[in-house]
Amino acid sequence: MDFKVKAGSKLTGEVQLPGDKSISHRSIMCAALAEGTSVINGFLEGEDCLATLDAFSKMGVSINRTDNKVVVQGVGLNGLKEPDSELYLGNSGTSMRLMSGILSGQKFPTVLTGDSSLSSRPMERIISPLKLMGSRISSSSEGNPPIEIQPSLGLNSLSYELPIASAQIKSCLMFAGLYANGPVTVIEHLETRNHTELMFQQFGIAVEVNETGKARKIKVTPPKSFLATDINIPADFSSASFFILAALITPESELLIKNVGINKTRVGFLHALRHMGANIELKNETNSFEPTADILVKTSNLKGITLNTRLVANMIDEMPAFFIAAALAEGTTKVKDAKELRAKESDRLQAMSEVLEAFGAKFHLNGDGIVINGLGKDGVFNPSKINSHGDHRIAMASSIASLRAKGETIITDCNNVNTSFPNFIDVSREAGINIVET
Ligand code: S3P
Description:
Blueprint: E1 3-6, E2 12-16, H1 21-33, E3 35-41, H2 47-58, E4 62-66, E5 69-75, E6 87-88, H3 93-103, E7 110-113, H4 124-132, E8 137-138, E9 147-149, E10 158-161, H5 167-177, E11 184-188, H6 195-202, E12 207-212, E13 215-220, E14 231-232, H7 237-249, E15 254-261, H8 268-275, E16 279-286, E17 292-298, H9 319-327, E18 330-335, H10 348-359, E19 362-366, E20 369-375, E21 385-387, H11 392-401, E22 408-412, H12 417-420, H13 424-431, E23 434-437
Parallel strand pairs: 2-15, 3-14, 6-7, 10-11, 21-22
Antiparallel strand pairs: 1-22, 1-23, 3-5, 4-5, 7-9, 8-9, 11-13, 12-13, 15-17, 16-17, 18-20, 19-20
The protein binds shikimate-3-phosphate.
Shikimate-3-phosphate (S3P) binds at residues 22, 94, 166-168, 171, 193, 316-317, 340.
């Protein structure tokens, strides 16, 4: 599937976006292992989260989907059954890495596979700490999927300092901690998204978080069992980032994005944009288990910034959108230490440099960073044909960037937008964007 986008009219009105991908994955995992019935509202019915849902169904968990609600009959920590076949997880790194923690604690073997993108993503980062706990996990000799996990002979307690700022590694170990014979402590020096901590607390699982200096220590004490609970999932801030960008860069726009998750570990993009001079207001803030707000965005004249390196982990999925904002800002934007972008669904530093090149933006890659010289508020991109590399976020960032191109832009290989934002085209059109799929 390709997208065709014409520089369009202004973005106005209100939009409601689909649920948060990270929270949706965790809600299914915890609800499946709980005792009793959990009702999940606002679950993201994107391919990635459906891959997680499907995998737990294959392990004997009864899960029903009706009207944006998912009802999960938990089987308890030791109630999963051996699946009949390998578990195919599509494009979803989160499913594979977090489930490896859970499956390391099971008394049956499993094999986890994925599509060609997932099959080339690094798994050694979870395999090595899981092995320290006694997991019988292995991958290809290159450290990629498929992952094979032999029946557990028991998992040990662990204290582990994250070598990479990654919520997926942290969460994998926290889930493995549910099956350990003592506490599992993960130490992070850069704060990563804390959805697993919040989800565990919501299910009554003991998690202690201690901040000492710049380190955060997250300690999970293995429970004997835990009870089901209901979960409300807000809209995904990462999906919202594309509409924030769209309203900022399109003249005369004023867009309200309703009920978005604004967890402080996720909104680095908001801080960076405000630093650039963006007019963004938060309204109707709530303090539920995952804080939410409506986000009001107005067209703004952005200025280049040097991005605080500590924000990178906090806005890792928003970097493609951020690069587009920088390419249309006044002045220079500098980003350093963004190596993790190379380990996503595509090498996003490389993919975005091709996108920027095709649009005629001024930039140079600088090792694992980038320097972008913005075209300014009146800058226009060249109309172009863009290769999204099958990466949902590259496809969506490029679609929005096309709003500032002189003519029509075609973005190819966009099927994977369905992994995180299945109704992207509909919502875009509702907001005033002239986009069609071909
Ligand atoms: C995620 C963590 C991040 C993010 C991914 C979702 C999660 O990955 O990029 O989209 O749900 O934990 P890393 O932990 O690899 O940075």
